[in-house]
Amino acid sequence: MEVYFDNAATSYPKPDVVYDKMSEFFKNNGVSAGRGAYQKAFQAEQAIYNTRKSLAQLFNIADPTRIVFTHNITEAINLALKGLLKRNDHVITTSLEHNAIWRPLKELERDRGIEITKIECDSSGQIGIDKIKNAIKDNTKLIACLHASNVVGTILPIARMGEIANEAGIHFLLDTAQTAGVYPIDVKKMNIDLLAFTGHKGLLGPTGTGGLYIKEGIDLKPLKEGGTGNNSTSEYAPKELPNRYEAGTINTVGLIGLGAGVNYILEQGVEKIREKEVRLIDYALTKLSKVNGVILYGDKNVQKRVGVISFNLEGLDHADVAYKLDSEYNIMVRSGLHCAPNAHKTIGSFALGGTVRMGIGYFNTKEEINYLIKALKEMERMEE
User: Are strands 210-214 and 3-4 parallel, antiparallel or unpaired?
Assistant: First the structure.
């Protein structure tokens, strides 16, 4: 039996339609979108626009052209932070952040003199709303945070945070790496000004895809300039979106796969996907809590977390646990700090070098969870 529990890193398997649509494009089209005045080039361009429309529907975005495609969510976050922040700007973030947010902020602190306030979350990953309110200053430009932790799965109170940002007249950047496609997101209701997403996790697309929604009225300095396939006589990047931020040949086949994944989600319904995820989280946490020596991290309320579960086994190194699960049971999990050292300091696992991380996906089953539990119990008995 082969079991994949690393969906927090990338989802696998994908729906068959994702493989089929990508293969179909490669075999029957395969041309560069937006770079030719012939039929296949127009078809490729239309396919990319259809992906924008599907994403706009998923996130309740009125204008699909405000969605800019990138190679991954890290690039999208870098575009948002480096394109928006100027010297002496103040940013509020949290102690749960992935390095995709934290490292660019530290670079900007060093190179541009921005100011960072890191709000400490509690050991379950929850954050106090009053702490955010009290951190706002005259020079505060942005609240930047993840939607849900990639370490413990805790969901932050995004709607309230967006409301606070809106009332204060500051921007709100949301990292949806662990929530897009598995949790309902509405940029209007949540007051999200900048939404960064990755294509290869909950959106069920391939790697090499991601993007950034930029609310109307926000002008970011591009990360790169070059050919855009339009207005080539100008020596400068175009002003209109999405071309302003999409210089160079775009990942057409990847974005077609992403579109297929998003359409699959829309057909299934995000609410249905979320309901299944909650059932599996509840089942996994209940089973894990009954294994001797298991230390669980994160909020105990399954409604306040996504399918990311971190744990350790007393007396065993997290890396050894992950290695044995793979080599002896063919179970794939992740171990270590998960590119989020501050989060591990927050939950108390940093000194241990991290945790074993289980990432539940839409195609996982209770039978697979039972197999993991069986393996952990056998490993625990061997240590006695």
Answer: unpaired
